[in-house]
Amino acid sequence: MMRWLDNYPKEVRIFLLASLVNATGSALMWPLTTMYVFDELGRTMANAGFVILIQSLGGIFGQLLGGSLYHRVGVKKLIIGSLALNALGLFALPWISAYWVVFICAMGWIGLFSSLSLPAIQAFIGFRFAERRGELFNIIYVANNIGVAIGTALSGFLADFSYHLSFVLNGVTSAGFAMFFWYYLSRVEPDQGKYI
Fold it and tell me: What is the mean pLDDT of residues 165-178?
């Protein structure tokens, strides 16, 4: 498909694919939530914008908190824990959306835990692939942007099919990303010291 990826080890290619899938799932949430709040919950577009604001504020706080917890908690616990808690929030959405305040809090939770892992993933790449970190940061950035484009494009189709199933499938991608990291970080040699 992309021959230039053949220049990278297999673990890097798998890592990029996992990042692409996770970015696609995360990007689904903005348009999907807007349509869901307006179409399914019968709220105004202003209400939908407020929910997206809460989710985004959770994301900002999650990135700040994730960076500060990196050395205190360790890569494995931080990445896997935040992705698993994000999946838990996504799985809960279909059952709590009838309760407006709880739904808003859940979207803040999802924003927080979907972003909490991002600084740890970036830092881990920097330590794990120190000799090629610059180009890998660029490739992951491009892969994440491709995921954002795909996720945004898919959101309308998924909304026509089922909002609730879309939230659950997004939770599955987050849980799958957590399992990928659990497997991957368990296999990495402990030469990263405290960074794992």
Answer: 88
